[in-house]
Amino acid sequence: MGTLGIRTVGKVSFGTPASEQPGLHNRWHPDIPFAGTIKDGETVKIECLDWTGGQILNTDDADDVKNVDLTKVHYLSGPFEVETAAPGDLLLVEIMDVQPFQGQPWGFTGIFDRGNGGGFLDEIYPSAAKAIWDFEGIFCSSRHIPHVKFAGLIHPGILGCAPSAEVLETWNTREAKLITANKLEDRDVALPPQPINVHAGSADATLKEKIGKEGARTIPGRPEHGGNCDIKNLSRGSKVYLPVYVAGAKFSVGDLHFSQGDGEISFCGAIEMAGIITINFKVIKNGMAALGLKSPIYIPGLVEPQFGPGRYIYFEGFSVDQHGKQHYMDVTVAYRQTSLRCIEYLRRFGYSDYQIYLLLSCAPIQGHVAGIVDIPNACTTMGLPMDIFDFDISPTAALALTDGKTLDMGSCAFETGVTEGKVTNGGENSETSFGGGLTYKE
Question: How do 251-257 and 76-82 pair as beta strands?
């Protein structure tokens, strides 16, 4: 490694549509052809596009976010053959480094329009919005959310090995049952295999058609192989143990993030970027049985932005929604309420709700399940690091804002002609529940 340099096993192009690049794919399926080969024990570099395939631009409007084509997303680099890997093995993936491209030192955070993707709080904040982040070394800042600067914990949002035919059938069967049971009028609870805009790497037309009919969308993570897990601590130095289900493992990676808050609450909520990830691969023979492993496990690396324990403000929420409706031990409801309390607090300093929503999605926020034992209320917390701001946001400073004077906070980007995002009631009078991540009628 030191004398020969590190080989780049997967390259991307910014001048060619993602859907035309043979080293990319946007479905999980065991038959997608290999995009390259990696030796057991080798360290390689893999280039990745951002998860939208370059649809989001470095501009001051959110037209691209509002109109993003969600059938053309999650282009992963791969799948790569790892020599000697066989079903039942574990693939030990050690992330050595993750960096943006030198010529593209920026990323974006988006709030998707409720009618096109939505997000965790889309019943309250239904408008499309965007913030562009500029990178300077390990730090990032945004013209759309001023007076904030922090170090990124750069990581991949997606990594995993291809499912076997049996595992793929398990995914499609159980998600189809959820889709069938859904009684919501305006929500997709899962996505079945969708042939539209399937990209299957270098597959020929016949195989591509088969993969379109059977292949699983890459939006959700799944317990058998991880996939789109969006765990911010899978950064430099992390070790991930991935189950192998097919010969050669067929490893894929993508959806790189410069930074992300726990929960990535706005859906496009990390600082999304294109970049290069450096990974070392080792095959552990018969590792699944040896560890009794049914899902990936990981060990975080040593790199993480550090804030003193007394330099956070923590907000708490319970499984009682904003209309006072009681939900039983619902962590999703609780974390929504935690987020809304943090938004309400930061609003007093002059930021708009949409700016705060974007910030909580991508900044180094610490989200925790605080208590799930005391019926009927689950409790969650969100820790906001005070030192990412260039002014004092402590309760003492907030109490001193009696004259209403705040800093100029500018604005995040909205669609053309829009200067302020909508804020709605999210199910007024509890006629519609906001629980369980879904909306249902009584």
Answer: antiparallel
- 7-299 maps to CATH 3.40.630.30: no
Beta bridge partners of 25: 76, 200
Q: Number of helices (H) and strands (E), helices first, in the chain?
A: 7, 26
Look at residue 153 and give its three-state secondary structure. Answer: coil
Query: Does residue 2 register a pLDDT over 80?
Result: no
Nearest CA among 344, 356, 340 for reference residue 144: 356
Q: Which residues have C-beta within 8 Å of that of residue 86, sequence separation ≥ 6?
A: 244, 247, 285
pLDDT at 3 over 80: no
Map out the domains of the chain as residue ranges: 7-299, 309-441
- Given a cut of 80, whether residue 405 has pLDDT beyond it is no
- The pTM of this model reads 0.95
Strands 76-82 and 36-38: parallel
Q: CATH number of the domain at 309-441, out of 3.40.50.1460, 3.50.50.60, 3.20.20.80, 3.10.28.20?
A: 3.10.28.20
First to last CA, the chain: 61
In one-letter notation, the amino acid at residue 38 is: I
